[in-house]
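Q: Convert this sequence to structure tokens.
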Amino acid sequence: MAPTVTFGRDSEEKTKLPADRSGIDGECETPSVSSDGDDRGTWGNHMEFFLSCLGFAVGLGNVWRFPYLCYRNGGGAFLIPYVFFLVFAGVPMFFLELSFGQFAGTGPITIWRVAPMFKGVGFAMVMISFLVCIYYNVIISYILHYLFASFTSVLPWVTCNNDYNTADCVEGGHVKMAFEIYKCSKIGGDYFNGTCFNATMNATAAIMNETLQNTNFTRVSPTEEYWKHFVLQISDGIDDMGGISWSLTLCNLLGWVVVFFSLVKGVKSSGKVVYFTATFPYIVLFILLIRGLTLDGAMDGVFFYIKPDWSRLAHPKVWMDAAVQIFYSLGAAWGSLITMSSYNRFNNNCYRDALIISFSNCATSVFAGFVIFSVIGFMAHEIGVPVADVIDQGGYPSPFLLIAFTTSGLPYSNSYSLLLQFGMLEAVLSGLIDEFPTILRPIKSWVTLGICVLQFLLALPMVSQGGIYLLTMVDWYSAGVSLMIVAVTECLVLSWLYGCDRFYDNIKMMLGSYPSIWWKICWKVITPVVLLGILLFTMVNHTPVTYGKYEYPDWADSLGWLMAMASVVNIPIFAIIALVQAKGSFMERLRAVTQPTAEWGPALNHDRDLDLSEPELNEKGVPVINIVPTKDEEKVDLSKSMERISTV
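A:
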């Protein structure tokens, strides 16, 4: 049996590939770690990488969308399809991308030396991350706004005596009482001390409810009015963009300043930030859970969340919702996982990381469900309606409203959003700089600044009065069908075109042993089938973008599809370019652009120096290896060396 061999990444100097090295032509400068800011660098330690990946995988989708899907799809029964797709699609894709990025040590564009025809997949990843970064920082600006607004003795979203409040605004627990007063007035009575007097008709509570069930009773909490009329200053639709909100603009600017200084030195700076941004959300989630469970009506919400409805498992949409949630939650195909793992030491145990982070992501989703539904139960108690009615109003309530409704604006979402921002923007920067290292790496700080400024300017329409409609449209289309297409292409290229056997060899070079055959089955069959199923289901069941009850005009839907295709179109474009630039007949060109280039492989020379073939053995069964390379490649017998050592 061949001896186990592991490698470490050179952290002291740059290496050059010799021109006569087998399989590699010419000279290739590779990145390394040093004090020089021009180097690509690596994580300071394993914990920085682990926390960065954990923070990227755990986001607002875990905190809010997962609990909502549990409610809609059978409560606790939803965990069955959720765990199913976690095992068969989520974890395999997560492990694949961590291994892929760590082995090559490059960004999401340059890494497609593995199959140059598909370099467009890398550009598609960068484009998707670029688009999502724009509106994610606007989300950060919302949270920063609430954070600053909470530094007052009286929170502005708990009263109805502000200039922006309407006649429908009712404070706190008075919402329920206001509805009783409204019902009493409809039958000609006078409401006093919880009783309706002098009614002109003798109506029981049941008759009153039947009479009023189709009546439009409008009462709005000050929290919702603060969100709509003060924070958003919302217009009537996307056709009316209105003016810029300067408070949100300044918060957005502050968000980009934080992002810039966190990324200006690459992982050397962002790696330190994650110690706070990845751990603080868990602390605050725990605080919010304690706070939520002490509120009136909280347990009604919790029971609503965990009560299983087994009959829902017979509906195909429940299974598709679980698959989509797992896929988006873990963050595969954005390019961010490839980027973050590319900064790892070559022999980092990415297999262990993939399992721990994936299942931690799942556990966080379940935990966050208890937090959210304890809050929703309290909201239902305050408003005086069933828990189901709280959720059904307008689809589902904004997480910002939940934060403001139950706490003094604790910004737990801020850290999640910042981590997502770091991951996606670093994918954009790494993709471009690794593709054009000679031009861009010496001026990485300026490149980072330029992209931050560009994205700040592109986000200005999203902080206008009609900005929420634009943000929702970008969110709806920028990372939907396009992300699925990228993921399916990536999985098929690596498992079938490059080949699972070669990919397994690459993993053995890093980990010292082959992974189990389970991953090969997933990558070649199960995971592509699952991803194709999600893609087809998403396209067949596509509905145009909406915001609450607002329906977008047709031109907005068309614009959204153009935005979605702007990333995917890179795949055929770069495939055609690769074929045109290749030489020979069509089949010769096709073979050339679907095989790894000479530069493909680990970024550093000594990480490449591994012979996976069985070593030569002497008569005693001891491997004969080259201990010291010489001109004549003199072979040294380990058994003789050991005998000499034993006689000393």
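The radius of gyration is 29 Å.
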